[in-house]
Write a structure and sequence with these properties.
This protein has one domain (3-61). 51% of the residues lie in helices and 0% in strands. It has three helices and no strands. Helix 2 runs antiparallel to helix 3. It is elongated, with a radius of gyration of 20 Å.
Length: 68
């Protein structure tokens, strides 16, 4: 079952039980446009993460396209 079908089923079940249904959605599509990755990497380094984790993070963020 997909997440969307699960949400639909939960809402339908709540409506049949005459329950109040509330859903909160957040849009993060532009969130990564605002991040300065050099700053993130500096903070990771200052927090004492291992060099291998820092290198993995650099490799993950380098030349990567993000789609939301």
């Amino acid at each position: 079952m997909t997440v969307l079908l699960g949400i639909r089923n939960d809402i339908a079940k709540a409506m049949k039980g005459v329950e109040v249904t509330l859903m909160v959605l957040a849009d993060y599509s532009k969130a990564f446009d605002k991040i300065k990755f050099k700053t993130v990497l500096k903070k990771i380094n200052c927090l004492g993460f291992s060099k291998s984790f820092l290198q993995w993070t650099v490799n993950y963020l380098t030349n990567r396209k993000h789609f939301v």
